[in-house]
Amino acid sequence: MNKSRKVLVPVLSMSLILTGISASFLATSATAATKYKVTYIPKNLGNPYFDAIVGGFNKAAKGLNMTVKVVAPAQAGATDQIPFIEAAIQQKVTAIAISPNDANALCPTLKRAMKAGIIVLTVNGDTAASCRQASITPTDFSVLGKYLVDQTAKVMGGPGDWAFLSATSTAPDQNAWLAGAKTYIDGGGQPTLKLVATVYGDDAPEKSATEASALLAKYPNLKAINAPTTVGIAAAAQVLSTSPLKGKVQVTGLGTPNQMRQYIKDGTVKSFSLWDPGLQGQIAANLIVSMKTKKVTPKSGVKFSIKGVGPGNWTMGKDALIIAGPPQEFDATNIDKFNF
Question: Where do the Periplasmic binding protein domain residues begin and end (predicted)?
Fold first, then answer.
């Protein structure tokens, strides 16, 4: 990270349109002496998905005179992130960005942070709107449940039994997707598919692998496992890659290209999806600076743009929800074009 100098530094130019009024500004303060100190708290350590979000933060921070400290619990328990929020409050950081493990358990501590003047953003998951100022979500979660069911149908190629291998039972993002999937199924979506189980690997590789193996043993007619978690999909693919059921039971869901490339190439996995996780980190870093410099107040309908980042333009939805972009499908034809 560049050391502070008493000179002007190049910064990322941003243009905001606030409630229909255009405004241009630099996404940092007037002098290089100002440092924006950000603490990012992912769900847990050692998860390649959240490592990609960290990469997005760091990429943006280089041009924003910002330092980003990453701290997280070893496990993704509902309250395990609270000590890290409390530490950030004591350190008087500029902002806390958090990928919450629980939608409600963190709220009292996050509200204390905001009361102390700290900007609070949720990234890749959300809490109650009163517990943060804005939320950056990777894609439109309201339709992702349907997307996952249709994704499963595509790799199955016909009728049959399938199962979800999710993260933790309290993960707000995955739970929203599973609820959307249930609504779609109950409404008649993909009627030839039968969802026989939803299990939880707690975003731990060993437990996820154990749960995947248990599904294969318990459901002899299983045709597919959909794991909407980067840890879970890799664990399930690893189990199937050495199983006699390889090619008979499909694995799909949400994963990163780098962790899933070998399973695409050895035929264990036909296709899977994700989005660019780093984009959320880039948006969050820029939004923190624009909020701190009072160039934007997050609320429904606010439009903003960030030059050279993702689609470039966003409109905040209800409760200042920001959708980073659409999902991207990966298969043998395109996986080598991506590196994250």
Answer: 39-291
Same structural domain, 159 and 268: yes
Structural domain includes residue 79: yes
Neighbours of 124 (CB within 10 A): 26
Residue 29 scores a pLDDT above 80: no
**Model confidence at 175: pLDDT above 90:** yes
* Pair of tokens at residue 61: 């921070």
Per-residue pLDDT, averaged over 230-247, amounts to 97
For 50-74, the pLDDT digits (tens) are: 999 999 999 999 999 999 999 999 9
The model's pTM: 0.71
**Exposure string for 18-39, b = 16+ CB within 10 A, e = fewer:** eeeeeeebbbbbeebeeebebb
Domain coverage including residue 252: 141-274
DSSP SS3 for 280: helix
Q: Are residues 223 and 287 in the same domain?
A: no
CATH code for position 256: 3.40.50.2300
Structure tokens at 277: 């996780």
- Contact of 151 with 224, CB cutoff 8 Å: no
Whether residues 125 and 227 fall in one domain:
no
The residue type found at 8 is L
Spatial distance between the Cα atoms of 251 and 156, rounded to a whole number of angstroms: 9
Separation CA 102–CA 80 (nearest Å):
10
Both tokens of 166, joined, read 């999710």
Whole-number Å distance between alpha carbons of 161 and 225: 9
Does 332 reside within a domain? Answer: no
Q: What is the pLDDT of residues 138-151, one digit of tens each?
A: 988 789 999 999 99
Same domain, 246 and 316: no
> Taking Cα atoms as reference points, which of 246, 245, 239 lies closest to residue 266?
246
The answer to whether residue 200 scores a pLDDT higher than 80 is: yes
Of 86-95, 183-192, 272-281, minimum mean pLDDT range: 272-281
Residues 155, 122 share a domain: no
Decide if 222 contacts 215 (C-beta within 8 A). Answer: yes
